[in-house]
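ESCALATION

Customer reports they have been waiting on this structure for their group meeting. Please prioritize. Original submission:
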Amino acid sequence: MELCDNILKDILENDKIMTEDMCWTIFANIMAGLTYMHAQGIMYGDLSPVNIFRCGDVWKIEDF
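Update from on-call: job pushed to the front of the queue and completed.
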């Protein structure tokens, strides 16, 4: 597993303000991850801010 910078939960609780670009980036990264998992036949049932990590400039789904 990679060493990641932040968890989405912490950003939502502490920063409180997210730009529109940041929201779209997070959304696009999460959708890309889910699309890839579904193409591999993997269904992820625990998507929450606690399981979304930022690694550099990329947001990733973890903990499955």
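Sent to customer with the following note: The chain has two helices and three strands.
Escalation resolved.
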